[in-house]
Write a structure and sequence with these properties.
Layout lengths: L4 H11 L5 H6 L7 E2 L2 E2 L4 E5 L10 H17 L5 E3 L8 E7 H10 L3 H19 L6 E10 L3 E8 L1 H15 L2 H5 L11 E7 L8 H17 L5 E3 L1 E9 L2 E3 L6 E3 L3
Helix pairs in contact: 3-8, 5-6
Organism: Cyanobacterium aponinum (strain PCC 10605)
Pfam families: 2H-phosphodiest
Protein name: DUF1868 domain-containing protein
């Protein structure tokens, strides 16, 4: 599914154009992952960068995203936007399985977790053998995007950084055992860091005001000389909800660069 580098740039740039915010804001919906401002059970697995609280390379980057997140929260209508804990900020490399698909898989096969953990470990080892020397990957901020249920900062890898990400995704999604576990690619890659989710989207919200807040905040975001996001490690993580991403020490992990 994932296209070439130019396909990626064309697609994701469109998602961050202020001229598209009006239509995006029309489509916002309350996220089912939160109820009354609290994250509800939403279990699954994904391949992500270490969450902010465990990060070492992107502290300044995440610090500024937290400022942007606070500004959006304060300026949007009350109870509309629910920020995620900044300590949970991360970049998703590959979605694997979640929600009812995951709970049903575990019911059908109580050993599901162990099988998935083992297979991802094999894939990561294969990837490391095929790509023994990869520099730290770099991604630059493109701007804010309004998803139907969330607001995120979208990122663009450099061309040299894009291909290693896509190669990993191909190894995962084309793996026969992964497919047998019921996991399939459902989305093209979109490098993004979620700032928060829509909580209570009332029928009478002032959507023009929402759009203006997003436009203004995006202007501030892209005018800053932000450091690039350094992707130096990705890991298999299990999540219990959209704020809690955990892993055991022996689960698959890859470090790139120095």
């Amino acid at each position: 599914m994932d296209g070439n580098y130019q396909d990626y740039i064309n697609r994701v740039v469109q998602m961050t154009l202020p001229s598209n915010y009006k239509q995006q804001v029309k489509n916002i919906q309350s996220s089912p992952k939160f109820v009354d401002g609290k994250a509800i059970d939403f279990p699954g697995f994904s391949v992500i960068t270490p969450p902010e609280k465990e990060e070492t390379n992107n502290k300044k980057f995440y610090s500024y995203l937290q400022e942007i997140q606070t500004q959006i929260t304060q300026e949007l209508p009350e109870n509309l936007f629910l920020p995620v804990p900044p300590q949970s900020f991360h970049l998703t490399i590959a979605d694997l399985i979640w929600d009812t698909s995951y709970t049903n898989a575990v019911k059908e096969n109580p050993d599901f977790d162990n099988l998935l953990i083992s297979e991802i470990d094999k894939i990561f080892k294969e990837y490391a053998q095929l790509n023994p020397e990869i520099d730290t990957l770099e991604l630059e901020v493109l701007g804010l995007s309004v998803f139907p249920r969330a607001i995120a900062v979208c990122l663009a890898p450099t061309e040299d950084s894009y291909n290693p990400i896509i190669k990993l995704r191909q190894l995962i999604y084309q793996n026969e055992q992964i497919i047998k576990l019921g996991i399939e690619q459902q989305y093209d890659f979109v490098g993004h860091i979620t700032l928060g989710y829509f909580d209570k989207v009332e029928d009478n919200i002032d959507r023009e005001q929402v759009e203006l807040v997003i436009v203004k905040t995006n202007e501030q975001l892209v005018s800053k000389n932000l450091p690039t996001f350094e992707l130096s490690q990705w890991e298999l993580r299990k999540f219990t909800d959209m704020t809690n991403f955990i892993r055991e020490q022996n689960w698959a992990s890859i470090k790139v660069g120095n």
